[in-house]
Amino acid sequence: MSGLHSCLGNRFNSTYNCLLLKQLLNASPFYYWWVIIMKIKVELDDRDFLEVETDGSGLNVSMLGCTEFMEMMQKMKRHFGVDIRKWPLPEGTDHSSILLREMVLKLRGEWIFPISENLVCKCRAISARVIDQVVIAGAHTTDSVTKQTSASSACGTCRPDVQKIIDYRIHSKLG
Asked: What CATH number did the domain enclosing 157 receive?
């Protein structure tokens, strides 16, 4: 038997695709083994990215970024091994820590982005993705997000959602 199943993750600037590739019958007809291919990408647009693909037997990691990002990845690999799922969550608020924290949480199945709607600021038509990208890049207050995106500069009703994104990015799973 074989099947194909696809599922999407809950973050606007990354891909999180699970493909149920095939169902393999074990020696007994009552046991099935599933081969799952998962591809996850986290990124700061036009700057840094980390992509992990797994087929159940290991992780294939691709990355590109600034010196800070690449050095952090190499340091984590040296200290904690190649399996990113087992790495501790970075505690920093810099873009490298934020991206790596997202990847670790996604690989563990613990990533739940706080905003489910694509459009956060309806007055200015600003998406969650745009807001999230400026938060990753360093806008860690609602005022700085407003200055860089114009989100919540009209009626302000989206300001709590902007704050939720900031809080999740800066404090997710840190305590």
From this structure: 1.10.10.1100
